[in-house]
Amino acid sequence: MNLPEQSSTHSARLAVELVRLRRDYVVRSPVAGSRRRRRQVVRAVDDVTLRIDRGETVGFVGANGAGKSTTIKMMTGILQPTSGAVRVLGRDPVPERRHLAREIGVVFGQRSQLWWDLPLRDSYRILGAMHRLTDRAREQRLERLAAGLDLGGFLDRPVRQLSLGQRMRGEVAAALLHSPELVVLDEPTIGLDMVSKEGLRRFLREDRAERGTTLFLTTHDMGDVERLCNRIVVVNSGTVAYDGALDSFRERLGAPRELVVDLEEPLDVLTLPTAAHTLAVEAGGIRHRIAFSGAELTVPTLLTAIGSQAAVRDLSLSEPAIEDLVRQIYSRGGRL
Ligand SMILES: Nc1ncnc2c1ncn2[C@@H]1O[C@H](COP(=O)(O)OP(=O)(O)OP(=O)(O)O)[C@@H](O)[C@H]1O
Ligand SMILES: [Mg+2]
Q1: Atom 31 of ligand 1 has which residue's CA nearest to it?
Q2: Each residue's pLDDT tens digit, 167-177
Q3: Which one, out of 50, 217, 223, 257, has a CA that is 20 to 30 A from the CA of 58?
Q4: Domains and CATH numbers, the chain
């Protein structure tokens, strides 16, 4: 399928354009008592349409087997779509795979792209040559990556000797060495502990802020989406179940937010707007926990209402975890 002509100027603005994308795998399984093998078609990606502007940050989430990695493989030119169209940075990924490789950086968290027996530093030399970076440009960039990802202690160690967290930082540096315009990460934080995850996320945010790249990532850790993405796309059985801003995703599911206020003076009861209610009053009437939901009711409105009844000493706000929201979507078979 070709993309319609009128989309060509529009395409220049887009980092990624997937139109009615589909991918089938043919699997052959043995049949009991026969030498024949049964042919079966697995539809991994069914009908995915997605447009991502340059500079966007998108979290692509879904259950195991939902079709995320298959979609990424079609975006990066590793797999040919069964039908539908895919354009990445204005290119057709399969025939233009080599060109595209210079403009995108990819990490497959489940699979290493580094040379196992070579010191990490040598992998970067090879990659630098593949991307036609000068020695100077490569060393400058590597210095920045080594500082941001804390690679200094193990640049000269063979990859096979690195811990998972060290290797993953090494993988991210490899993907970013050539300062790609589009960064595609397939489960970049898999298996990492909280501290390593946070470090990696912090660096990805910094690098994106400096270079204004487009970020597309899959993850099972909603912390990654919360910290790195503005937009969330939920995929279920190969189709897009939700696509929108992270904020409206929370709102649309109507999950309550929680405001905790500490008052200067004890008060038994606060009168609240209708979309809010008191969950608990603690510390002898000082601390009030309030649940509220809906787009109309904002924190300032709520605070104005409270402020007319008591002086507020301190407050905190907690958002519902995206993970719980995604679970709700799965339990409804992918519908909102
Ligand atoms: N090479 C393959 N041959 C046959 N079937 C495959 C192949 N790769 C993936 N599949 C099937 O396609 C479907 C989608 O797989 P995919 O790896 O894209 O899912 P995913 O969303 O990345 O899952 P996960 O969260 O587990 O990584 C699954 O049913 C999977 O079993
Ligand atoms: Mg996957």
Answers
A1: 65
A2: 999 999 999 99
A3: 257
A4: 7-250 (3.40.50.300), 256-319 (3.30.70)
